[in-house]
Amino acid sequence: MTTVRLPLFPLNSVLFPGLVLPLNVFEERYRAMMRTLLKTPEDEPRRFAVVAIRDGHEVAPSAPGMPDPTAQPERGPAAGFGPDPARAFHQVGCVADAATVRERADGTFEVLATGTTRVRLLSVDASGPFLVAELEELTEEPGDEAGALAEGVLRSFRQYQKRLAGARERSLSTGADLPDEPSVVSYLVAAAMVLDTPTKQRLLQAPDTSSRLRDELKLLRSETSIIRSLPSLPSSDLTRGPTSLN
Questions:
Q1: Rounded to an integer, what distance in angstroms lies between the CA atom of residue 29 and that of residue 176?
Q2: Which of 6, 12, 81, 104 has the greatest CB tally within 10 Å of its CB?
Q3: SS3 of 178, please?
Q4: How confident is residue 224, by pLDDT bands cut at 50, 70 and 90?
C-alpha cells in the first residue's frame, strides 16, 4: 500500500481527476497551507488533498467573499469539524496539483489547481496550523467493457446536454470536444452533471471505471427523462461554461 502525507483542504463539493479547481483562500488555516505550498521547490508539484465534507458538517466560515468581521468563529485547523475531523469527511478524495498560488496584497490567495489522483483518507493530523492527512493512493482499474460503456455514456451525455440547454439549442459539445479514454470520460461526465454531493461522491469512489460508467448511464437516462418532463429549464446556464468545482 502506497501512502502519502499531504495538506488537507475540505470542501462542500467533490473534485475529480483531470478537473480544474479554482479557490479563493482567505481563512487563516488555509492561508497557512498556501504559504507552506509556496515553499515547495519550483520543479516539484505543489500538492494537497481535497475531500468532500459529509452532510451535516459545516466548515468554519469560508464561503466566497469577505468573512463577517463581527463573528467569533471557532478557530484552529479542525474548526467546525468536531473532535475527530476524519469523521466529518468522505473517505475517498482527490489529490490537487496547484499550478498557480498567487498571494494578494491583503494576504489572501488566488489558487488554480487540477485534480490528479484518487486517494483514500486514512487519518487526519490536526496538530499543526492546518490539517494534514495520511492518504492511500488508489489505482484506477478499467473493469469490463469500459470502452463500449464510455461510448454509450457519451451519447447519453450529449442528449442530457441538449435537454439541459433547451430543446431548440444546439448541443454545446461535439464529438471533437469530448475525450474517448474511458476513465477520463467517466470523470468529466461525473463532474459536469447536475448532481448532489453524495451522488458525485459515489461516482468518485466507484471501484473501477466500468462501474462508474454504468452508474452514470443510469443517472443520465433518468435525469434526461426528468428534464424532458419539466415545463422550464432554469439550470440551462450550467451547460454554457466550464465546470466549477468550488
A1: 42
A2: 81
A3: coil
A4: confident
> Which distant-in-sequence residues (6+ apart) come within 8 Å of 199 by Cβ?
219
Q: Tell me how far apart the alpha carbons of residues 87 and 206 are, in angstroms, rounded to a whole number.
A: 20
Q: Are 18 and 115 in contact (CB under 8 A)?
A: yes
CA distance 243 to 188: 9
Tell me what percent of the chain is helix, strand and coil, each rounded to the nearest 5. Answer: 35, 25, 45
Q: How far apart are CA 23 and CA 21, in angstroms?
A: 6
| Residues 6+ positions from 144 with CB-CB distance below 8 Å | 210
Give the separation between CA 222 and CA 215, rounded to whole angstroms.
11
At which residue does the C-alpha cell 478524495 appear?
Answer: 93
Within 8 A by CB and 6+ apart from 85, the residues are 78, 124, 126, 131
Q: Is the pTM of this model over 0.90?
A: no
Q: pLDDT for 16-66, tens place per residue?
A: 999 999 999 999 999 999 999 999 998 899 999 999 999 755 444 444 444
In this predicted model, what pLDDT tens digit does every residue of 93-147 receive, in sequence order?
A: 999 999 999 999 999 999 999 999 999 999 999 999 999 999 999 999 999 999 9
> How big is the chain by its Cα radius of gyration, in Å?
19
Do 145 and 210 meet the contact criterion of CB atoms below 8 Å apart?
A: yes
Q: Residue 43's Cα: distance from chain center in Å?
A: 25
Q: How far apart are CA 214 and CA 146, in angstroms?
A: 9
Task: Decide: helix, strand or coil at residue 218.
Answer: helix
